[in-house]
Specification:
Blueprint lengths: L5 E5 L5 E4 L5 E6 L4 H10 L1 H17 L1 H4 L3 E4 L2 E7 L4 E2 L4 E3 L5 H24 L5 E5 L6 E3 L4 E5 L7 H13 L8 H10 L3 H9 L9
Parallel strand pairs: 1-3, 5-7, 8-10
Antiparallel strand pairs: 2-3, 4-5, 6-7, 9-10
Amino acid sequence: MLYDYDIIRSHRKSISISVSNDNKITVRCPWGLSAKEINKYLDSKSDWLEKVVRRNAARLAANDDILEFKKVYWNGKKMPLVISDKNEITPEAVYVKKIDDIEKVYKKYCFEGFLRTVEELSELTMLKPASVGVRSYKGRWGCCDSKNNLMFNYMLFMLPSEVQRYVIIHELCHILCHNHSRAFWKLVSDYEPDYVRLKKELSKYDFLTSLY
């Protein structure tokens, strides 16, 4: 095996492998599985693993300026990220007093417009959430709880508007289908026929959810 990886053992009966956005590889397996058996499994997945690692590495390399906090996405475009004495978004740059203020400034400047979009799509789909909010999430873009409260990751404001729209529709559809069944995806496709492409586009930004 060419890559380092972490092993998480449990009472599960099967073995699986996952690769994070920053190329951390994790193997989940039963307690008694031997190293030889793990390596055999990894060898069987080597082509897939190599593909995922290369793709992630290329994506991270293309976003060095984002990872180094020199720039930040806003509506799908890269903007200079300037540490200054104010928290403000202008056509020229995003200004923050400190990196931790990114969430604060994005909520201030973007939430109202985002909420209008949610309301418009709610009217279009006739799917009514109990409430709508935004917060910081690690590893996810949004959720719909059992009471149909929608919560979105504020980092959505960094993404292109068409991708934001797809995530909103995705979560609205969970009001009727609290799963990812065939019926759920059929409902999504009714309101966003291009959802397969947009879902793939969304994955290009997944690294953001572990950055801020």
